[in-house]
Structure formats: C-alpha cells, structure tokens
Amino acid sequence: MQKIDALPERYALNNELHARPFPRLKTSSHAFHLALKKTGDFTDSTAERKHLRAILDRFGTAHPAPDAAHFSGQIGRNTLKWEMHSEFVTYTIFSEETAEKPFQRDLFDAFPADWLAEAPGEVLISAIVWIESVKNEKARDEAINIQMPDWFVAESLAVSDVVDGEATIAGDFRIDENGHTRFAVLTRPEIGQQRLGRIVQRVLEIATYQAASMLTLPVARDVAARVLTLDAQHNALVQDMAAQVGNDGETLDRLLNMSAEIELLSSSTSYRFSAVGAYEAIVNHRIQVLRETRIRGRQLFGEFMMRRYDPAMRTCRSAEERLANLSARAQRAADLLRTRVDVEIGMQNSKLLRQMDKRAALQLRLQKTVEGLSVVAISYYAVSLVGYLLGPVEKLSGYSKSTLSAIVTIPVLLLVYLSIRRIHNKVGGHDET
Predict the structure, then answer these.
(1) What is the DSSP string of 339-373?
(2) Which residue in 320, 103, 127 sits closest to 208, CA to CA?
(3) Using one digit for the tens of pLDDT, what is the confidence trace for 140-194?
(4) How far apart are CA 15 and CA 133, in angstroms?
(5) Taking a C-beta distance cutoff of 8 angstroms, is the pair 116, 135 a contact?
(6) Domains (ranges, CATH) in the chain?
(7) Which of 1-5, 62-66, 232-236, 405-409 has the weakest average pLDDT?
C-alpha cells in the first residue's frame, strides 16, 4: 500500500464522516442555540468567522482551521458547537450549570451580551432546551400535566416519547417573552450521554431548518400573486392568437416580453425554492429518526408539522410549480406564434420572389428588344462608314454607291449581331469561342 499513490482528498473526505460528532450530554445539561442569517454575500463568511474567533479569544480557546465549516470546543465551563451553513451560521452552548427555574431570563447569558450585540447577521432562531431527568413514567406524566402548562402554550404543545421511550421531547414552536423558542427534554436516568446528545441535536435541527424553510413563504406568496397577474395576461394573449386579432409580430413581442419577465422571476427565486425543498426534507428526516410514540393522545411533533408546517411548504411548492407551468406555457405559445410568423414571412418571401421573377422576365424581354434595336442602330452607322470606305472603288467596280451599300448591309448586319451576342455571352458567363 505504501507504493500506491493515495487520492489527495482521500483522508479529508473520509474525515468528513466524523467531522460533526454529536455532543455528549448529562441529564443535568441545558442547550442554548442561536442561528444567525447572513445579510450580505452568502459566499463571504469573513465576518462570521471573525465573530467566532472573538468569543474563542475571550475564553482563550484555540481557533479552528481558517476554512473550517464546523467547530466544537470548550469556552469556560461550557461547550460551544459552531456550524457554518450556506445562508446562516449556528452557535450552540451546552451547559451543565443548574438553574432554579426552567427557561428563566438569564439562562441565555451564556452568550456574552456585548458579543451578541456585535453579531453579524439577523436572528433566525434562538432556542433554549431544558433537560430534566424523570425517574419513571409517573414522574414524566406529572411534569407534562403540571409543569408544561407553565412552560408552553397548550394549544400548540407537541409532546412525544422518542428513541424507544428513553426520552420525552416537548415544544410549542412559539417565541416567548424573552425572544426564545422553548423545548423540554425529559430523560430516563439510564439514558446514555451520546444518545441524549443526539436527541437534543435533532430537536435543535428541526427548529432551525423549520425556521430557515419558512423564509421562502413570503417569496412564494409574492410569486403566486405575480403569477396570477401574468397568467391572466397570458390567457388574453393566447385568446387573441386563437382569434387572430391584431398583428402577429406585435403579439409575439408582447409574448416574448412576458416570457422574459417570467424567466427573471424564476431565476431570482430559484435559490429560495431549492433551499426550501432541502430544508423541508431535513426537518421531516429528523422527525422520522426520533421514532416518536404517542403519549395519551397528545400531539406528536410530526403531527404538529403536518398541521402547521406542511401547509406553508405546500404553498411554496405550489408557487414554484405554477411559475414553472406558466413558463412552459408561455414558451409553447411563443413557439406557436413564432411558427405562424415564420410561415407568414415565408409566404411574403415567396410572393416577393414571384414578383422578382416577373420583373426579371420583363427586363429580359426589354433587354432583347434593346439588343435588337442596338443591332439596327450600330449596323446603320457601320454601313455608312463602309460606304465611305468603298467610295474610291465605285468607279472601278462599275456599281453605284447605293448598290455597294446594299451589298455590304447584310454582312455588316450579321457581323454586328454576332459581335453583340458574343459580348452578351461573355457577360452572362457563357463565352462562345
């Protein structure tokens, strides 16, 4: 193996499988999660990396590689997990410090206030995950029935057992008075630290990607409204085409302008519609791997998403499909009208060619007429010149001048005719020698 050249990216690609390990959490841990949406160029992450180094320097933590897209390390007594995504960046602090009351205001102070004030971007989601150990099913039910009504809005609350019943997750996906989304994880005492870390990570990913996918909803509504207007205009144009109302060239210009506007709308929203498809798939996958089971008729996370989240995603998909359908219809109409215009132009060209043929035939007849007249005129002057040349031989021949002129007229006429034909053939490319 030492003699075989390794693929240059072999180790880097293999390490990607192990680059994002799940946190190992104790049952007394809590998670504080912050996702910041980038506001500038998505490809430029200079400000986000600088902001990460600022909090690491504050706690004397080593920096990640300059081009790293993820990082996990200690900041004081807490663990920081950082990830760079295409259009947002996430910071998650896992803390083992205890608090007197769940979801109290100062829990999020794990993030320094002045550091938060200098954060680049805008808050996409900030969430607190409260982790509490329950001894048995009775203690779990007491927490659900007594404590959770104080933590969550009952109408939106989703609660379920997950991962073979080793934990219970709860959340209402609402923003509380402090600006945070709350989640609770009730664990069995025997749960493993890594399994607990996976559960908490999945809950945070569900919340983050759900928030990110909702960014497309306003865009989808705007697209739907614009498509409705363009669709009415397109229908009117097609009706005019079917009734052959107006000039086809002007109609084609209008249709091409509409197609250009549709293409601009499609290209300007393609990234958002592609992103929402990916985010929705992640949300559904994370819910699936949690393997939810119902607790006494309570709403599951999957049911909450089906009732509250799926309609928004269907709106996004519908807007994308209607835009694509309108684009295809406009293209077909433009092709049809372009074909009609091409046929009309072909008919006009054919008519023009027939007219040109008639003109060419007329010019040919005129040319032959002029050619005949030219033979007569040139022959007349040629005979006159020859008559002058034959003047000295008039007495010697015994013929009169008029007789001599009559004798040479036919040969001169023939010679002039042949000369003109020769010149005509040369000009026409038919040299007769």
Answers:
(1) HHHHHHHHHHHHHHHHHHHHHHHHHHHHHHHHHHH
(2) 127
(3) 999 999 999 999 999 999 999 999 999 999 999 999 998 999 999 999 988 999 9
(4) 34
(5) no
(6) 10-208 (no CATH), 216-351 (1.20.58), 364-427 (no CATH)
(7) 1-5
Distance (Å, whole) CA 28 – CA 133: 7
**pTM as predicted:** 0.78
* Half-sphere exposure in the Cβ direction for 211 (13 Å, CA): 25
How do residues 218-266 score in pLDDT, each as one tens digit? 999 999 999 999 999 889 888 888 887 777 778 888 888 888 999 999 9
Closest alpha carbon to 207 in 320, 70, 304 = 304
Tokens encoding 107: 């829990």
Spatial separation of the C-alpha atoms in residues 21 and 9, rounded to whole Å: 21
Tokens of 117: 């004030």
Judge whether 266 and 327 are in contact, CB under 8 Å.
Answer: yes
Q: Which tokens belong to 24?
A: 């190992």
Sign of the C-alpha dihedral computed for residues 109, 115, 116 and 117 taken in this order: positive
Question: What 3-state class would DSSP assign to 93?
Answer: strand
**What CA–CA distance (Å, rounded) separates 365 from 370?**
9
Residues 188-220 as b or e (16 or more Cβ within 10 Å = b):
beebeeebbbbbbbbbbbbbbbbbbbbbbbebb
Tell me: the pLDDT tens digits for 191-216? 999 999 999 999 999 999 999 999 99
Tokens 């007769």 correspond to what residue?
432
Distance CA 316, CA 328 (A): 19
Compute the distance between CA of residue 251 and CA of residue 380 in angstroms, rounded to an integer. Answer: 64
